[in-house]
Amino acid sequence: MKASTVESYRLRLWRVLDFIQARLDEPLPVADLAAVACFSQHHFHRVFRGMVGETVQNHVRRLRLERAALALRHGDSGILDIAQDAGYESNEAFSRAFKQHCGVAPSVFRERRELSFPRRPGAIAFGQMPPIDDLIVPGLGGPLMKVELVTRETLRLAGLRHVGPYNQCGNAWEKLLPMMGKLGWLSGCESMVGLCHDDPESTPAEEIRYDACVVVDETFEAFDDVTIHGIPGGTFARTVHVGPYDTLNKTYAALCGTWLPQSGHETRDEPAFEIYINDPESTEPEDLVTEIYLPIV
User: Fold this and answer.
1) Which helix (H) or strand (E) holds 57?
2) Which of 45, 63, 64, 295 could form an S-S bond across to 199 if both were Cys, CB 3.0 to 4.6 Å?
């Protein structure tokens, strides 16, 4: 482990956590948060989730609910006003979220002012930013995963864009593979590549962008909805995920939140990509093998 790198990541994480606390009433675009933390926008969400233990979206929501709980306990503002301050347009939506988080409705919480809201161990609480040296970073305390550094040449890909939930990206593959197979572009275990542009835990499901891709060479020309993508060559952190695709987020969190801060490396501002080693149509979910490539410097 490189202490200077760990300290740098810890400082950058503290800086963005403090930025969020100071601007809970404002929109918090990913680009702004990534810039504050000096992380690549492509990978900021995964680094944040891996190090903090929750997504940016859940972190902001939790802080706003904690602030609302304090307002209910100590203030006399109406519940609807408190709901709107927490980012909810209706009392009903606020009540559902508050009850899910605190276990009781806002009105009950106000009546029984001795109630407390749940604290996740190690979580940053509203209004209680610790000194940088005392900042608990869940990812940094975990075991290092098996990662190897590899150098790859530029990849040229033919891809079909899917916009929507990741669990529906099979539709793109079902359309792409028959077309590419007829053209003779399916061969070898590295022919199927996925470009993952968005973190599914932090991006609205209907806005997630994913490209189902097949490796091609310079002779291939785009047609219809099939477009050309290039992955620049360079150094990548490679790890292997074994299991269902819907648990890939845990491997990404460990890679970006545990291994990366202790590695001495930074990410390049390019998307990660996945290579699918076996066929999900003929392989049990627990036996699926996915290679993850994180671009680093």
Assistant:
1) helix 56-74
2) 45
End-to-end CA separation in angstroms for the chain: 17
Task: Say which DSSP state 124 is in.
Answer: P
Name beta bridge partners: 226: 223
Domain that holds residue 270: 148-295
Separation between Cα atoms, residue 17 and residue 9, nearest integer Å: 12
**Residues 192, 128 share a domain:** no
* pLDDT classification of 1: cutoffs 50, 70, 90: very low
Question: Could you tell me where the DSSP H helices lie in 86-144?
Answer: 91-102, 106-111
Q: Which amino acid is at 44?
A: F
Domain count, the chain: 2
Do residues 110 and 153 share a domain?
A: no
Prediction pTM value: 0.85
What tens digit of pLDDT does each residue of 278-295 get?
A: 988 899 999 999 999 999
Task: Give dist(CA 211, CA 194) in Å, integer.
Answer: 6
Q: Given a cut of 90, is residue 211 above it in pLDDT?
A: yes
Q: What is the pLDDT of residue 2?
A: 52
Helix H or strand E encompassing 194: strand 192-196
For residues 118 and 264, which has the higher predicted lDDT (pLDDT)? 264
Same domain, 106 and 211: no
Domain at 114, CATH number:
1.10.10.60
Report the CATH number that the domain containing residue 265 is assigned in CATH: 3.20.80.10
Query: Which of 139, 157, 187 represents a domain boundary (last residue)?
Result: 139
Res 277: pLDDT? 92
With residues binned 3-state (H G I as helix, E B as strand, rest as coil), the percentages for the chain, rounded to 5, are: 45, 20, 40
Helix 56-74 / helix 44-52 crossing angle, nearest 10 deg: 50
Same domain, 124 and 189: no
Residue 87, phi then psi, degrees to nearest 5: 95, 15
Q: Is the distance from CB of 59 to CB of 53 less than 8 angstroms?
A: no
